[in-house]
Amino acid sequence: MSQGGGAGPAVLAPPPYRSRALAVCADFGSTFTKLTVVDLDTGELVATASHRTTIESDVIDAYAAAEAALANALPGADLGSTVLACSSAGGGLRLAVVGYERAVTAEAGYRVGLSAGAKVVHVAAGRLDAAALAGLLAAKPDVVLLAGGTDGGNADVLLDNAAALAAEPELTGPLVIAGNVDVRDQVDALLRAAGKHVIATANVLPRIGTLDPAPARAAIRDVFIRHVIGGKGLSRGDRFASLVRAATPDAVLAGIELLADGAGSVPGVGDVVVVDVGGATTDVYSVVTPDAEESQLRREVVEESWRGRTVEGDLGVRWNAPGILEAAGVERLVAPDSAEAAALAAAAARRATEPGYLPVTAADSVRRGGKDLREVGLVVGSGGVLRHAAAGRAEQVIATALADRAGGWKAPEHATVVIDRRYVLAAAGLLSFDHPEAAARLVHYGLSRGA
Question: Which CATH number goes with the domain that contains 42?
Answer without folding.
Answer: 3.30.420.40
